[in-house]
Amino acid sequence: MCPRHPDRVSYVRCQRCGRPACPECQRPAAVGIQCVDCVRQGQKAVPAQRTAYGARVRSGRPVVTFTLIGICAVSWILQLVTNGSWTQRWAFAPFIAHDEPWRFLTTAFLHSTNPLHILFNMYALWVMGQFLEPLLGRARFLTLFLLTAVAGSVGVLLLAGGPHDRAWYTAAIGASGAVFGLFGAAIPVLRQRGLQATQMVGLIVVNFALGFFIANIAWQAHLGGMVAGFALGAAFAYAPRERRALVGWGASALLLVVLVVLAAVKYGAV
């Protein structure tokens, strides 16, 4: 009788453990069949495949990328149906973020009511996510996105003149700071892999230049996110194999500390 299904007669035995296995518990093996328990144990013994940057090789869609896109989409709908109150609650502006520091991050999940704003950012996130998330892994990709989103807000803060400047009271919303962070991180990743980064650099230059010719684009956030993304991407890409985790997470923690210190110094100076 099958040990997993005592009411079923088994006519074959597992080639590995010798226990009877009913048709539901049989799995084809190189020689004969194995039971599902032995197959599961064998899979645990096989080392997980890793990318060049130590991330576990996964099949399927980039889960983190699609989750971030989903959060931005839901947030945008809430912005529309609440007549702006959702935006006011989470948007970043230098004058208020000192007392409500979570706005440095939450503003990256907000967009203007013009659908082109969110469509462009989500398309760029989708493209870059499909490239970077499988290489870096889910945890490091999410860390990269979140830290460069914060860096974008810090860039806006640092380049705002102060309480006498209109930019001090102007809200800066959108995921473009994080998107430019992904652009920046892609450059050292491409170079480390021996691939040309010329097209990526050109894409960054063109999109960055648009901030100076189109109104209501926070080029400061683009700059902050891009610089942070390049630095963190270089740490991920060029970390020694034996110290990959230490260097990657150490660089992430260091970047967060630097961003906090820069924001604190700016607020202290004004």
Automatic annotation (TrEMBL):
Classification via Pfam families: Rhomboid
Natural source organism: Luteimicrobium xylanilyticum
GO MF, one annotated term: serine-type endopeptidase activity
Subcellular location: Membrane
Positions of the Peptidase S54 rhomboid domain: 99-236
Annotated InterPro entries: Peptidase_S54_rhomboid_dom, Rhomboid-like_sf, Rhomboid_protease_S54
One Gene Ontology biological process: proteolysis
Superkingdom: Bacteria
Enzyme Commission number: 3.4.21.105
UniProt keyword rRNA processing, yes or no: no
Gene assigned in the entry: gluP
Assigned keywords, A-Z: Hydrolase, Membrane, Protease, Transmembrane, Transmembrane helix
SUPFAM superfamilies hit by this protein: Rhomboid-like
Membrane-spanning segments: 63-82, 102-129, 141-161, 167-190, 197-215, 221-239, 246-265
Family: Belongs to the peptidase S54 family.
Topology term for the membrane: Multi-pass membrane protein
Gene Ontology CC: one annotated term: membrane
Protein name: Rhomboid protease
